[in-house]
């Protein structure tokens, strides 16, 4: 799976937000190229459906409903910069998910887990900007 564009292929941590219409489906973080991240998930999901996966990561849960349909998904990707650490990225991811929960009274539909790291003071500020950009 390939995506074009500098932000999608850079080696910095990124936050990505997947939406269908006004519904938030998933918020994630990665340092990988987005094509690699999504490709791994689609392969893992296929292995799970075929009974090949014994344990571990089973791919994105939203694939079942949205794969091979004409539904158009929106993918927002935010480059967190070279100085961002794994814990910083997870803190921002958690804050974005929490902001969605607070604003819409529900978690992103296919969110399975979030990790909190309270030692990154700017996480709330960054999350608020992400919500502002991804909001309808």
Looking at this protein, list some descriptive labels:
136 residues; alpha+beta; 3-stranded antiparallel beta sheet; 40% helix; 15% strand
Give a summary of the structure in a few sentences.
This protein is of the alpha+beta class. It has five helices and three strands, in the order αββααβαα.
Give an account of the 3D structure.
The chain is of the alpha+beta class. The protein has a domain at 6-33 and 72-134. Helices cover 40% and strands 15% of the residues. It is built from five helices and three strands. It has helices at 6-9, 34-49, 63-66, 86-104, 123-134; strands spanning 14-20, 23-30, 74-79. It has a three-stranded antiparallel β-sheet with strand order 2-1-3, covered by helices on one side. Strand 1 (14-20) and strand 2 (23-30) form a beta hairpin. Helix 4 crosses helix 5 (123-134). It is globular. The two termini are 28 Å apart. 24% of the residues are buried.
Which helices and strands occur, and which strands form pairs?
Layout: H1 6-9, E1 14-20, E2 23-30, H2 34-49, H3 63-66, E3 74-79, H4 86-104, H5 123-134
Antiparallel strand pairs: 1-2, 1-3
* Number of H- or I-type helical stretches: 5
Helix/strand order, N-terminal first = HEEHHEHH
Distance between the termini: 28 Å
Pairing-aware structural class of the strands and helices? alpha+beta
